[in-house]
Specification:
Among the domains are: 88 residues, Bacterial muramidase (Helicase, Ruva Protein, domain 3); 81 residues, Lysozyme (Orthogonal Bundle). It has 15 helices and 7 strands. The protein has a 5-stranded antiparallel sheet. A two-stranded antiparallel ribbon has the order 1-2. InterPro entries: Lysozyme-like_dom_sf, Lytic_transglycosylase_MltB, MltB-like, SLT_2.
Length: 336
């Protein structure tokens, strides 16, 4: 049988139709740069449905307010301006009331993990004002914005976005597209990033669900477990004021890693203003106080707090808030 040739005009419009349909096929379109590769990775590693992952990401929005917020972190302030943000009479009073309201559970968790309860309370106090302010941004928006549109820290935040999409449903307080948190994508009362939820969050109430927004046992135990897993020493010192003499050796440090025996720092001209355990590995932080430079011996537990937030200002604020809360509450059953 002979087939009649197709007119050239018909062939031309048929080709245009095929090209148009291909360009408009949803499977080939993505909303955000790098979305297709991210979805392929998560689907390959977790078995999650690519269409469902794309739908989640398609609903996320790049938020300029998030990019603005990360460009002006509080940790950029000097200590003299940073401290008053967190060491207010109201925050201390609220911390004392929070401790007293949950004392039995806090001291149970503190005893189990070897972390003094006032430090658990202080973390929650600094991060979210004791659970009252857990963040207004959609976590998915925050991590899409910073992971796919913020080159200076895209590697870190893309990894957090990937982990958020990969976490089992029972590790989150709700559906991924309903979660709210900080501009950096941290969530819950303790402000855990997705990889911290994966690695350190605890189902302390044994209900088969990790809930860092509604379960106090999960919240308290997760903060304590985070500390322990980063090397917290039960009863160990955190920070102590140092007084330099006129010939003190200038010391510069890159981070809060304990580098020298305390006696070495004393030999270099820095005298402790309180009794400290001899031989304790220490570092020295020099901060801009309201009356000039302040010098602080810092120890392993201080270094652990900087894993929560790498700023020494943050770690010192947590330590001082914890001490103020402990002084207001009175003796606990656990030790520092």
């Amino acid at each position: 049988m002979t087939v009649a040739p197709v007119p050239s005009a018909v062939r031309f419009f048929a080709i245009l139709l095929v090209l148009w349909m291909g360009a408009s096929t949803p499977a080939t379109a993505t909303t955000h740069p790098g979305q297709a590769e991210l979805v392929r990775e998560v689907a390959r590693e977790t078995g999650k449905n690519p269409q469902a992952l794309n739908a989640l990401l398609d609903g996320a929005k790049r938020q300029q307010a998030i990019l603005d917020a990360i460009s002006r972190p509080a940790e950029a302030k000097p200590w003299k301006d940073y401290r008053p943000i967190f060491l207010t009479q109201q925050r201390i009073a609220d911390g004392i009331a929070f401790y007293r309201a949950h004392r039995a559970l806090l001291e149970q968790v503190g005893k189990q993990y070897g972390v003094a309860p006032e430090y658990i309370v202080a973390i929650i106090g600094v991060e979210t004002s004791y659970g009252r302010n857990t963040g207004k941004y959609k976590v998915l928006d925050a991590l899409v914005t910073l992971g796919l549109y913020y080159p200076p820290r895209a590697t870190f935040f893309r990894a957090q976005l990937k982990e958020l999409l990969s976490l089992p449903d029972n590790h989150l307080a709700g559906p991924v597209d309903t979660l709210t948190g900080s501009y950096a994508g941290a969530q819950g009362w303790g402000q855990f990033m997705p990889t911290s939820i994966r690695d350190f969050a605890v189902d302390a109430d044994h209900d088969g669900h990790i809930d860092l927004s509604n379960s106090l046992p999960d919240i308290f135990a997760s903060v304590a477990n985070y500390f322990v897993r980063h090397g917290w020493i039960a009863g160990g010192p955190v920070a102590a004021r140092a007084q330099p003499d006129g010939a003190a050796k200038p010391i510069a440090v890159k981070d809060a890693t304990p580098q020298w025996p305390l006696e070495q720092l004393v030999a270099w001209g820095y005298a402790p203003l309180q009794h400290l355990p001899p031989g304790e590995p220490a570092s020295l932080q020099t901060l801009e106080g309201p009356s000039g430079p302040e010098y602080w011996f810092t120890f392993q537990n201080f270094y652990v707090i900087t894993h929560y937030n790498r700023s020494p200002l943050y770690a010192l604020a947590v330590d001082q808030l914890a001490q103020a809360i402990a002084a207001g509450v009175g003796p606990a059953e656990t030790t520092r």
